[in-house]
Amino acid sequence: MVLSSCHGTGVPYTAHEKEIKVASTSTARPVVRQDGEGERLWFYGGGVHTWKATEKETGGAFILFEAVMSRGKVTPLHTHPCDETMIVLEGELLVHVQGEEYILGEHGLLMAPRGVPHAFMVTSETARMLVLETPGGSEAFYRGASVAATEDVLATAPVEMARIQQSAKQNGGIEIVGPPPFAAK
Predict the structure, then answer these.
(1) Please, which residues bridge with residue 97 across strands?
(2) Alpha carbons 129 and 67: distance in angstroms, whole number
(3) How many domains does the chain have?
(4) DSSP category for residue 103
(5) What are the pLDDT digits (tens) for 52-111?
(6) 100 falls within a domain
(7) Which of 60, 119, 137, 169 is the most exposed place for a label (fewest CB within 10 A)?
(8) Residues spanned by the domain of 131
C-alpha cells in the first residue's frame, strides 16, 4: 500500500525524499514586488529603507530591504545574530570587516557572518543597496529605529543615534560594539 507518492506518480517516496518533504514545510508565502514597491521607512541611522520581504512574509527565513543613502552615512561597528549580505546596486561604500577596510563598488557584495563586527560608510554622492539578513530576526530593530518616509521627514532627514541605540536595546537584532571605525575621509 502506498500512503504517499512522489509527485502523484504512484511511486513511493524514498526515506530521503520524505525527509526533504517534511523539512520543506514553511509558513512563507509568495512575494512579488516591483522596483519602487514596498513599505518605505526613514531609518534614523540615515537613509530610506524600502521593504521587499518581511519576516512574516518569508516565515522568518530572511528579511530583504533596499537602502538608499547619501554621502557620509556611516554605521557604528556592530554585529548581528544573523548573516548580513549587502549588495551595492549603485554608488560606493567603504566597508570595515574584521579589522580590514575594502572599497565596495557597484555590484559588489559584503557578507558578514553572524557575530562578525562590521561597519560601512557611503563614499559616493548616493548609494543604493539590497540588504539580506538570514534568518530573519532583525526586523523589529529596523522598524523600532524608523518612521514612515513622509515628505516632511525626508526634508529634514534626521539622524538620531539615540533612537538606534534604544531600538537595539529594546528589540535586539544588532549589537553595537564600537564607534564608526573610519578615519576622517
Answers:
(1) 100, 118
(2) 5
(3) 1
(4) E
(5) 999 999 999 999 999 999 999 999 999 999 999 999 999 999 999 999 999 999 999 999
(6) yes
(7) 169
(8) 33-178
Check: CB of residue 49 under 8 Å from CB of residue 43.
Answer: yes
| Contacts with 110 (C-beta within 8 Å, 6 or more apart), sequence order | 85, 86, 93, 95, 97, 102, 104, 118, 120
Indicate the Cα dihedral angle 90, 96, 100, 101, nearest 10°. Answer: 40
Query: To which residue does cell 561597528 refer?
Result: 77
62: domain CATH number is 2.60.120.10
Grid cell 521627514 in the structure block, residue: 153
The reply to whether 93 falls in a domain is yes
Pull the grid cell for residue 8.
502523484
Q: Which three cell numbers stand for residue 42?
A: 526613514
Query: In this structure, what DSSP letter does residue 12 have?
Result: B
Per the domain annotation, does 8 fall within a domain? Answer: no
